[in-house]
Amino acid sequence: MINDSNLDNVFTENDNQENFDYNVEKGILSKVGFSYFFLLLIMFFIPSILLSFTYNPSNDLVLAYNFIGFVVGAIVLHYSSKGIPNSKNSKKHDLSLLKYIAYFIMGYGLMILGYSISSFIQGLFINNAFNPIQTFESSNMIVTFLYAILLGPIFEEYFFRKVLIDKISRYGELFAVLVSAFMFMIYHMNFYQFIGVFLMGVVLGHVYVKTRKIEYTITLHQLANFFGLFVPMLIGTSVYAGIFNYFCIAIMFLAVILSAYLILTVKYDSGDIEIPENKTFGFFFKNASVCAFIIFGLFIGVLNLGVFA
Predict the structure, then answer these.
(1) What is the pLDDT of residues 43-61, one digit of tens each?
(2) Global pTM value
(3) Residue by residue, what is the 3-state secondary structure of the chain?
(4) Where along the chain do its domains lie?
């Protein structure tokens, strides 16, 4: 393993940055947006269509249909993103065990903090919003473990870290981290999860751009889902539930402290393409296919709030 003591603090200006060609880069970003808009449609419509042909489906069957969406989505994304160039920076780095634990604390702690904020806000305004976590809680534990803990994170990390960040980090690592987290958030199509998923996505994106090893983000994602979904199912309302709640509160405080330190010390690579006048984010989000992805995800999110029920 290499020494990663300064892994997060190294800022490297790319002396071989390519000249910015508006039409070329607009075309590339259009392909990215289209690939992920199509992925979103697959993840929504495949389970929905299958459910429409199923009488009184169980939650286990719902998860099985969602898994079919994962498989089809992965295949389609693989081929639809083939012509999109990757970043030139593909050098891999290792993490020490201490840093791995720190990233788990940040990712899991910020995720549950985000869920707590969302739950509080929704409690003030909306009483019948759909909470997808309830689907897992009322499903078979083995099915939940296979879908949400073991297999789901593999597909989602492939979608939003491996493929997406490899494609868009050519515009800079910070851009890749924030955009991948934002698209990961929209992909969940549920306002209850938005804040927590975005914060978790930032941590996972940071880990990936600094290591380029998807196995780190997959296992961090799996651990976060294990503690966030499976442990509460195991302990239920027993005496251990109170202890676990204190554990979560401690993790949230540690996550905030560690995240503040990371924000103050981290430096990101500037990428292969220098987009002038710091207009990278506007250039990306003004893209029609990206806007379609965002609008569809938000629309389904609004429906899940139950305001029209």
Answers:
(1) 999 999 999 999 888 889 9
(2) 0.89
(3) CCCCCCHHHCCCCCCCCECCCHHHHHHHHHHHHHHHHHHHHHHHHHHHHHHHCCCCCCHHHHHHHHHHHHHHHHHHHHHHCCCCCCCCCCCCCCCCHHHHHHHHHHHHHHHHHHHHHHHHHHHHHCCCCCCCHHHHHCCCHHHHHHHHHHHHHHHHHHHHHHHHHHHHHHHCHHHHHHHHHHHHHHHCCCHHHHHHHHHHHHHHHHHHHHHCCHHHHHHHHHHHHHHHHHHHHHHCCCHHHHHHHHHHHHHHHHHHHHHHHHHHHCCCCCCCECCHHHCHHHHHHCCHHHHHHHHHHHHHHHHHCCCCC
(4) 19-304
Tokens encoding 197 = 């998923």
Pick from 184, 183, 165, 180: which is nearest to 271 by CA? 165
**How would residue 290 be classed by pLDDT, with cut points 50, 70 and 90?**
very high
Counting other chains too, the contacts that 210-215 makes at CB distance below 8 Å and 24 or more residues apart are 210/7, 210/8, 210/93, 210/173, 211/7, 211/92, 211/93, 211/94, 211/95, 212/89, 212/90, 212/91, 212/92, 212/93, 213/92, 213/93, 213/94, 213/95, 214/157, 214/158, 214/161, 214/162
The encoded tokens of residue 237 equal 């309302």
- Residue-level length of the chain: 309
State the CB neighbour count (10 A cutoff) for residue 141. 12
Closest to 19 in 3D by CA, of 273, 269, 270:
273
pLDDT of residue 23: 78
